[in-house]
Amino acid sequence: MTLTYAIGSTNNVEATDVVVGPLEDAARNANLTDYESVYRRSIEDPQGFWAEAAQALHWFEPFHTVLDESNAPFYKWFVGGKTNMAYNALDRHVQTWRKNKVALIWESEDGIVRTYTYWQLYRDVNKFANVLKSLGVRKGDRVAIYTGRCPEQAIAMLACARIGAVHTVVYGGLSTEALRSRIEDAHAKVLVVADGSLLNGKIVKLKEIADQAVDHAPSIETCVVIKRTGHDVDIRNGRDYWWHELMSLPIASARCESEPLDAEDPFFIIYTSGSTGKPKGVVHTLGGYMVDVYTTLKYVLDFKEEDTLFCTSDAGWIVGHSIVLYGPLMHGITTLMYEGAPAYPYPDRWWHLIERHGVTLMFTAPTGVRGLMRYGDAWPKRRDLSTLRLLACAGEPLNPEAWRWFYEVIGQRRCPVIDNWWQTETSRPMISNFASLPMKPGSCAFPVPGVALDIVDEQGQSVPPGVEGALVITRPWPSMLRTIYGDDQRYIDQYWSRYPGKYLTGDAAKRDADGYMWIIGRTDDVIKVSGYRLGTAEVESALVSHPAVAEAAVIGLPHPVRGNAIHAFVLLRAGYSPSEELANELKAHVGKVMGPIAKPETISFPPTLPKTRSGKIMRRVLRAQALGEPLGDLSTMEG
Ligand code: ATP
Ligand code: MG
């Protein structure tokens, strides 16, 4: 096993020697031991691959066509099949010994722990499905869900799935206007809302925010209010009902047959993070999502019967749908949901959760890793992390230095780090490394079985290894978005027009000589300095490789001579303070790691970086601020 890191230079194609692993135990026991042959089969015979994959799940009626391409890019998968997500996530298990296995562990920020077995979850989902029916919710109706992370959030989602209602989960804490516009966009009929949720020891007053939104959202007929924090809230007569009261009425019987739904029935609407502009209302349908998420996670997260998964995301984002809820439940494993902030009351909260609940798989985002790395090694070292066997990370490029910390301090060199690339639109990881393969810090490795992709130049021609280009997906996949809600034209324009027949991801990438994929940033963020194109990820990783730096964001601003110049925004690690001397040192450091062309023109030390609530750096906001331009859509920005 090689343990050398060329931190900061690992985005160069030459850096193929920076290889870690594979880790023997993880590789030997992996679900995917022969990546190459499984991948090859999925590409040579995609229909056969997916038809076979679909057999792992329950269908009320079999599909007659795996893929219908007749109206591309409006692809249809598993045509003619009838199925149900709640059935596959719950009923399938309660018919087996898993009936009383723990499905969901919830821990609140103030330390309450609640667990649900598959049977208990099944009963509550049935009950709430009956409640929704009694409120007039029918197949195809939209239900908005605006809560913190709590079991009722999961129950409400699964209850919608059971009766064929389309859920749209809005991240708890987005503003009144963000909630209102999503309700309006989706024409939601019912809103499931919590009174509040805890974050950093304070109550986020969700019901209060929702009241203002619903006042201007006439499609909402009923609000179902979950009592979580217990503070006083306004209950409007005839519109608002308490969850616990509805659930104790006779109409909330614990039997509700799951509706056989068409594979192509809409399953949910979810909005993108808004890193690059106004969030898009992405529509996912049932059958393709179900089969694809099930299959992909078996390989990428290497699910085993005895696993307990802690995914730090929220159902307000796609990761919360696929990794916190539907993926693990379809597989019959235990999922841990944590309500609050990662550093509350102390920066070891996540590590404490792992210790307390014996977590085996952890899934988080680079913002979480970098954020906790700032506090140093002592916090995780106080906790027993020996149950962990695999670490996964997605959402932004994982800088090699953050990778190293995650791998060495959290995973204690025992756990593969699964850097995986995906989007709200894809529903599931599309590029990933696997427990059985060697890792390269900073690279998200290889296309997942079933994913045909390419890196292309302006003309749409494939580029050779080492050359950067636009990342495209060249074939439809089952869990792809079907459209943007109510805006088919935007769907075509946004994803299918730039390179006809190919799905445009909007990300720039390159492949190294070993076939490893490196995401180098958003295409729009690539900075052109004196004719050279520089990805944000490379420059930011070079900055993060300096011991003083915890996080960095870079943007390009017009420069009279060089076309553009790089401007960097840096958050320091504990124990360092801003100074001109340090700024000069960092400039020199980047120059040394990447070459003089990448040397930032300015370095500033703001107290925070503008991020989406899902933790992604919003470079467009930094750019607009610097240029004195309007800031654009800020509905998902961290408050
Ligand atoms: P919007 O589309 O509204 O601008 P967004 O693209 O941030 O927001 P998401 O769908 O949440 O919304 O994020 C997907 C993006 O996140 C990808 O296009 C990519 O830029 C980035 N990303 C996700 N995973 C990784 C990863 N492992 N490495 C690098 N980048 C990643
Ligand atoms: Mg996007």
UniProtKB/TrEMBL annotation:
User: Coiled coil where?
Assistant: none
Any GO BP annotation: acetyl-CoA biosynthetic process from acetate
| Domain AMP-binding enzyme C-terminal as annotated: residue spans | 538-616
According to the UniProt entry, its GO molecular function terms are: acetate-CoA ligase activity; AMP binding; ATP binding
* Enzyme Commission identifier(s): 6.2.1.1
Instruction: Tell me which InterPro entries the record gives.
Output: Ac_CoA_lig, ACAS_N, AMP-bd_C, AMP-bd_C_sf, AMP-binding_CS, AMP-dep_synth/lig_dom, ANL_N_sf
UniProt domain AMP-dependent synthetase/ligase: residue ranges:
91-477
Residues annotated as domain Acetyl-coenzyme A synthetase N-terminal: 35-89
Protein known as = Acetate--CoA ligase
Traced from the root, the source organism's taxonomic lineage reads: Bacteria, Bacillati, Chloroflexota, Chloroflexia, Chloroflexales
Q: Which family does it belong to?
A: Belongs to the ATP-dependent AMP-binding enzyme family.
In terms of Gene3D superfamilies, this protein maps to:
3.30.300.30, N-terminal domain of ligase-like
Query: What cellular-component terms does GO give this entry?
Result: cytosol
Task: Provide this UniProt record's keywords sorted from A to Z.
Answer: Acetylation, ATP-binding, Ligase, Nucleotide-binding
